[in-house]
Amino acid sequence: MGKKTKTKKQSQALSVPAQVQLAEKQLQDGRFQDAINTLFRVEAEFRHYTSQGKGQTLPPHLANLQPTVAPLMGQAMFARALAAESVEARIKDLQEALIRTPENRDYLLGLGICQMLAENHQQAWLFFEQAQQRTPDDPLVKGGFILGLLASGKTREVRDALKALPEEALDPRLHRLFAMRDFFIGNNAQATERLRNSASAKGSAVSHIFDAIISLSAGDLPIAQQRLNQIPTFDRNPSTGELAALATQFFYKGALCFELGNFEQAATALFEAEDLARKIAVNLPFLERLAAYYHKIAAATQSPSNLTVPIACWQRAQAINAKDQAAAANLRAAQQVEGNRAWREGRVAEALEIWQKALHLKPQDERLLTNIAAACEQLERSEDAIIYWRSLARIWRQTLKREFDDALKERLLVLEKHIIEKMMKADRPNHEVIAELDAALSLDATNAETRRQYIEFYFDIGQPKQALKHIEYLERHEAESAALLTQKGLALEMTRKSAAAQKCFARALELEPHNALARQAYIASLDQEGQKALEKSQYARAVEICQKQLELDPTLLLARANLANIYFEMDEAESAEKVLQQAIESSPDDAYIRVTIGGIYFSNGYTKTAQELFQKAEELDPSPECLFKIGNEYLSKCKHQEGIKYFERAAKTASLDLLFEMCLTLVEHDDDKKVEKSVNRIIGLAIKKDPSHPLPHLIKVPRLLIKAKVDQAQSALNEAERLVSEKKEFASFKADIDEFRKAIKALRHLIENTGMPPELLGLLGRMDLD
Amino acid sequence: MKVNASDNPYKVLGVERQATAAQIKQAYFGLVREHPPEQDPEGFKRIRAAYEKLRDTKDRAQTDIFTVDDSALALSDIQTSEVELPPLTLEVMKRDLLALEALSLLDELQARVAATS
């Protein structure tokens, strides 16, 4: 663009003679479009002079120049014509060239040829005749002239013209044209003889195909076939004419194969013919016959087990004529059949691809949409499945609007339900899910399934008030049910209407005493209430609540624990002990209950009782898990020494996961040196148990950073990183590694730039890491 | 929901997708007579499962939507084109040959122009 503008500006600034010089240079350089543009401006300048009253005559220097401009423009137009993409563009340019240089032989010849290609034979002949009159001895002109005569049906004139020429003047083209003349008047034998006797005519691609056509026309099919099967080779890139001849040869080969019933070979040859023909900027006559062949071949070769050739034929027929409805319909049907076959044979991905292609041709095809969606589900491509199901749903909705149909409505409701479920699972945007829900509801406002989906959705996105609307609708239209009451209770709970929620849960349990969800929800609601009561020191109320919880679930240890703690708080130790004793009696062999209860005693200052319970628990269950739990109780009360003892005993036989849990529990208390040593020992055990696990090394890193032991922290991190890279299952630790890397970098920076003592840095590190 | 090619209840019962409820029922009973549970328990199970998917309007709707229609019926949808194949007459061959001669002439003209420019 810049170059053009520059050129335009350049030439505009130049004088006319300079512009003419520029145009000559541009033409020499092959930039004929630029040359044309420059010369148009020059021509405009000349017109300007002669029409604007500035004088009827040009100034002398321009008058001298004027005669050179037209021929130059002619040359430029001619050059552009030869490079043009279409016959029409060529004709237009050649006409312009001829206007400027009417006598030019090549322009007349070129125009004649292009008119021939446009099948305006009479016009062509006129131009050839003019060229002939000007340069009768030019071999190309002679050839054009004879060709023009032949094309216009003047066969006698052709004979006379050729006979008038001496033998030595007959070049290969003229020989061939002579033979063509014989062929056109039905004298095949003569044509063949002339062609084959002329050694010079034989060599060309056109002669080759001509020879084959003569045999074909004469009914000599074996010879024709032989000729057509001989594909000429080229030692360089074939010219346009040679490509056209080759394309035509393939066409006739295909046509002959068709006549002989070799339909697949016919298809191959015709495809080749078309592909070659499309490479040249001329519409060869045989192209308009291809579509018919494609349809016939498709009809002849289709079978339920193989539609490859028919599909290819219909695709090409459709490419030739986008309005070919038969091709489009057949293609769609065939693709569906192919897709179906692929599906039956278990080639699901292939079936999907084929059906999707078919869908392009008819985007509203319900069968295809269904198949595609189902195939997407099979391939676990949920997002794609949703798209296609939604398209199908849209079509059915539109159909229902036009004409109500019960069965269709039923199917649509089922489909909507499925779509909504999938969309919710796929976390589709809320507005999309709501749109689909609304569409389903508008179809049938009484549909309970849809209402239930609304409820589930609104719960999912945390909009309990919206969920309540639909719950209340169902309440009005359905019989009372525990499930619905529980949902209502949950919604009310979420909107902080605990009392109302609890009423719902209670009623639900009346209807279904074993409804686990209602029970859990009720207990959870009471829990919330209990917490609030304790915060306000409303102990009596808190006790009531715990008792209510225990009514609902006598095995609820948490309720007993809470109740005991409240009694202790109220200095009613006896009541507390009674509650705790009941817990133990309810599961006398449960070690964990004893540990938990021991913890409660411990928290409330009953150390001895706690220890007895821990001991009993250990007798019941000496497993490392139980020992860990006991140790944890001690640690939580800052009894580090006792806690460590239990942890170290547990560590001897603990699993790797338990070792990790112990480490992570201990590091919370490791400002105590004893705990620190224990952590180190347990980390050592974990590494020994599984040297390939990165977590023990990662646990070291923050502890080392707190002490500002940066290099050691780096080593530990490096080791962790190495281990993470070795197994895919540890990929989740990469985020931690990145964080620690940043922390180490920050700490190094602090050390290097602040000169702070390590202990202080460690303190800062602890604060940061905490 | 996964749907397998072999789960098609229509195929199991040997009926078309457009079959009426009565036709489906008839097909089911016919197959049950051929595959009674005491003689062919697996076959009967399959037939029964297929029937369950189609007997109820709602179940049938579910099946219709989520079962791939993989029938070869579509082949019957293929239409025969009414386009006639133009015979290879002398006129047709003439057109082809004249076009080729014209292009051959154009090649030579271009070559000559290129040689002189």
Write the layout of secondary structure elements.
The complex is a heterodimer of chains A (770) and B (117).
Chain A: H1 2-13, H2 16-28, H3 32-51, H4 60-83, H5 87-100, H6 105-117, H7 121-134, H8 139-151, H9 155-163, H10 172-184, H11 188-197, H12 199-202, H13 205-217, H14 221-229, H15 240-259, H16 263-278, H17 287-301, H18 308-320, H19 325-344, H20 348-361, H21 366-378, H22 382-402, H23 406-425, H24 430-443, H25 448-460, H26 464-477, H27 482-494, H28 498-511, H29 516-535, H30 539-552, H31 557-569, H32 573-586, H33 591-603, H34 607-620, H35 624-636, H36 640-651, H37 656-666, H38 673-689, H39 695-706, H40 710-726, H41 734-754, H42 758-769
Chain B: H1 9-13, H2 21-34, H3 41-55, H4 57-66, H5 90-116
| Largest sheet entry of chain B | none
In round numbers, the mean pLDDT of chain A is 89
Low-confidence stretches of chain A are none
Strand content of chain A: under 5%
Series of H and E elements of chain B: HHHHH
Mean pLDDT of chain B: 84
Which pair of protein chains has the largest interface, and what are the residue counts? A-B, 85 and 54 residues
